[in-house]
Specification:
single chain; 818 residues; mainly beta; Maltoporin, Chain A; 22-stranded antiparallel barrel; five-stranded mixed beta sheet; globular; iron transport
Length: 818
């Protein structure tokens, strides 16, 4: 029925074509002609997109409005070269730039707001950059740069720069108000207003949103709840301007982790008792944790808080014309973040109730000869077919970042020179307290107790659980990392002729990192005087037998980096609409946080990731048709793989990679503006090189020549739209994500199948009011973006742990421009 509806929309659009309407660009047409676009990201000065020797995608506020992305990651899916995993929810998603593998997050790109980082390192443990940023109507445009030139303009960004540029006020007072609802209980309000307090001199802009919803996956509580406000004030004078701004983010988001599926040939299907499109282990019935600690007191956590960052940002920007073609620009920002992170992480796949209870401990069982399950909620004895061990992971992070970017620019007849000094001090302190719980293996899980009925309730080891908890505070971590970055950079743009330009840049990084970890010991509550049920002591349960306790011994570490990054490029403008360019870049990425932590006793094993990248490109931009074709090659050394497993250990491997690929991006407006189509795609072949070594258990591995994990060789997005009338528009989107391997070994039991996700929507412009309906995953595709990096294989069964995209959902909105 849904397929027929889409075809009907397209057919109706064709029949409704009216040439009188089609002679002008429709009001809701959102593509800004690339031939006129000016870009600033990855360039020392603003320049036309066709004259920039970079691979850069741009999205205006109107384009973002049309796409109405459910998250920042969903918007970045439209950028070629970025393989994006969006299945985590609104936040906590992963982005892989040009085939560079990582444990996740935004490790090789820098996410920026107005040219400065959202946070200096976007890949700290459990602190993905998109945790601290939301897309709303205060965003003026997005510029997404791919490739090595990012290393000249920012730190740790050899994969590219993602720059969200916020709106500023103008002489005309104007604003946008939006109200949105959905099929999953969404209520969202967006508001943005801007104007002049003093004409031609003093301007303001204020915007933000508040949102509450139940989540597409059924959690039984408010999955997302919170909002953001952003404001700026800009004073313009004869020789420049001064701007100050503030942002406050206070938002709660549920983070969705892998669920069980069953493998049927090359496809993954739903596991019994689990809806693959709407089910989740993150459910209300298991949302509360309250357990005593070996050092005294209790540790309490509420899953309903999810990922909860409180972010305060205060910044300023100043530009001044010094005369004689010299100018100075200074950007400064202070960011403070307090984040509580709570998530349910499966500890492997479901097991039959019998296997979990009776199998030996070294095979993941409890080693019991007799067993009995009961519900924690009621005490009723039950006999579940499958049970699931889940990690109840709680992480607290306190983070701050002070950054200042000072640059001087000199313009001359043939170009300009920019020289600058970048200084950034940042710190992140984190505390982990992880426990494991036992539940039914269903998408509305219930907590289970497990006891040995052959023993009396007062016997030692009678129970394997404590109110459903199998392992109390089984992992504690208290650690801190600090960075002090001191970078000098120089960039030259030189116009050899009107058509031929040259760009060269160099950045010298003298960066220092240090930190510590608190060593831990183990304890139990047997002699604490506490009871498990008001009567029996903790010697009757094994749940507390391996509790972690923080000690008073600290291990400190220190690491410094002395590196040079550089880039050379040339752009040849064939004519007003055609250009070709070539660029070579050498850059690096500092070791990530987990690499320091895992090798704290031998930091010689940790090295910065070195990158060499070459790209050439052809661009054609006109009023009705754009195309960019960009072949690229990259070679990386010293990549660290730092996935944290469900038992708290880390992968801790190092590899080299190569990648050869091509990015394609385009837009067409046809038949007198009746039909529009946007498209982007990436074809690549990322492979491991010289990746051999020894596993933690002593066995050897040889992954040389294997395909890089989790990254597809081919993926694309295409979105045709029909302007039925000047005011009425309908669209369909298709997102294809190719087959991937979950693990480095490229084993057949860890293949992530390809999938195609469809969306569709319609909008109608009535004067200054826009009505819109947007549907995502309208055919309820089971699309897997990643498996379970914490527990990859389930030998002997067809059960696979993986993280599917969200099920079908629809949103409806009303927007008023005034």
């Amino acid at each position: 029925m849904k397929k027929k509806s889409i075809f009907l929309i397209a057919a109706t659009a064709t029949l409704y074509f009216n040439n009188a309407y089609a002679q002008e660009t429709p009001q809701d047409s959102v593509k800004v002609s690339s031939i006129d676009q000016i870009v600033i990201t990855g360039n020392s000065n603003p320049k036309k997109k066709i004259e920039s020797s970079t691979a850069i995608s741009t999205f205006s506020s109107k384009e973002i409005q049309k796409q109405n992305p459910i998250s920042a990651a969903a918007l970045l899916q439209r950028v070629p070269g970025f393989a994006v995993e969006t299945s985590g929810g609104e936040v906590g998603n992963n982005l892989f730039a040009r085939g560079i593998p990582s444990a996740g997050a935004y490790e090789f790109v820098q996410v920026q707001e107005d040219g400065l980082p959202v946070f200096e390192d976007g890949a700290l443990q459990f602190a993905n950059a998109d945790n601290f940023f939301r897309v709303d109507n205060s965003v003026s445009r997005l510029e997404a740069l791919r490739g090595g030139s990012g290393s000249i303009y920012a730190n740790n960004s050899p994969g590219g720069l993602i720059n969200f540029i916020t709106k500023e006020g103008t002489n005309d007072f104007k604003g946008t108000a939006k109200l949105e609802t959905s099929t999953y209980g969404l209520m969202r309000t967006d508001l943005n207003v801007g104007g002049a307090l003093v004409k031609d001199k003093l301007f303001f802009n204020v915007g933000g949103f508040y949102r509450s919803d139940d989540g597409i996956r059924k959690t039984g509580f408010k999955a997302n709840n919170g909002g953001q406000i952003r404001m700026n004030l800009k004073y313009v004078f004869d020789k420049g301007y001064a701007k100050v701004y503030y942002k406050k983010l206070d938002d709660r988001n549920t983070f969705f982790l892998p669920i069980p599926l069953t493998q049927d040939g090359e496809k993954l299907k739903g596991f019994q008792g689990f809806d693959p499109n709407y089910g989740t282990y993150s459910y209300r019935a298991i949302s509360q944790l309250n357990i005593p600690q070996a050092g005294g007191g209790f540790f309490s956590r509420n899953l309903e808080d999810g990922i909860h960052p409180k972010v305060d940002v205060l910044g300023a920007e100043f530009k001044y014309d010094l005369g004689g073609n010299f100018s100075v620009l200074n950007k400064t920002r202070y960011t403070n973040i307090n984040m509580n992170y709570t998530g349910i992480f499966p500890a492997g796949a479901p097991k039959t109730a019998s296997d979990f209870a009776t199998k030996p401990i070294d095979e993941g069982g409890m080693g019991m000869t007799s067993y009995q399950y009961s519900l924690v909620s009621s005490g009723a004895v039950v006999d579940p077919q499958f049970v699931q061990k889940l990690g109840f992971w709680a992480i607290d992070k306190q983070m701050n970042n002070f950054v200042n970017d000072l640059q001087f620019n000199y313009k001359f007849d043939k170009g300009n020179v920019t020289a600058g000094f970048y200084k950034s001090n940042w710190k992140s302190h984190q505390y982990w307290n992880w426990s494991n719980i036992l539940t039914t293996a269903t998408d509305r899980p219930e907590l289970l107790n497990l006891v040995d009925p052959s023993l009396s309730p007062s016997s030692v080891g009678y129970s394997k659980t404590y109110n459903g908890v199998t392992d109390m505070s089984t992992l504690l971590r208290d650690s801190q990392i600090q960075g002090s970055l001191n970078d000098l950079y120089l960039n030259l743009d030189y116009n050899v002729t009107d058509a031929l330009s040259f760009n060269g840049g160099i950045r010298y990084s003298r960066d220092f990192y240090k930190g510590y970890k608190v060593n831990t010991t183990t304890a139990n509550l047997n002699n604490s005087g506490l009871t498990v049920d008001g009567t029996h002591g903790f010697d009757t349960t094994t749940a507390d037998d391996h509790m972690n306790v923080l000690g008073n011994q600290f291990t400190y570490w220190y690491y410094d980096i002395n590196k040079v990054s550089y880039t050379l490029a040339s752009n040849y403008k064939i004519n007003r609409e055609n250009a070709v360019y070539a660029r070579f870049s050498h850059g690096f990425r500092s070791p990530n946080e987990e690499a320091y932590y895992n090798n704290i006793g031998n930091l010689d094993a940790v090295k910065p990731v070195q990158t060499n990248q070459l790209e050439v490109g052809y661009k054609y931009y006109s009023r009705t048709f754009d195309i960019a074709v960009i072949p690229f090659y990259s070679a990386l050394k010293n990549l660290s793989f730092t996935d944290v497993y469900s038992d708290g250990t880390s992968e801790n491997k190092f590899a080299n990679t190569t990648n050869l690929g091509v990015e394609i991006e385009g837009f067409a407006r046809l038949f007198n503006n009746v039909f529009e189509i946007t498209f982007n795609g990436t074809i690549q072949n990322p492979k491991y090189k010289d990746f051999t070594g020894r596993n933690a258990d002593g066995s050897t591995f040889d992954y040389d020549g294997n395909v890089v994990r989790r990254i597809p060789k081919f993926y694309f997005n295409i979105s045709p739209a029909v302007n039925i009338t000047k005011d009425w528009r309908a669209y369909v989107s298709m997102n294809y994500y190719g087959k991937r391997f979950q693990n480095e070994g490229n084993t057949e039991d860890n293949i992530l199948p390809s999938f195609t996700e469809f969306g569709a929507g319609m909008s109608y412009q009535l004067g200054k009011i826009r009505f819109a309906v947007d549907g995502t995953n309208i055919f309820n595709t089971i699309g897997i973006t990643e498996g379970d990096p914490r527990s990859q294989t389930v030998s002997g069964t067809n059960i696979r742990m993986a993280r599917p995209i969200m099920g079908a959902a629809a949103r409806a909105s009303i927007t008023l421009d005034f």
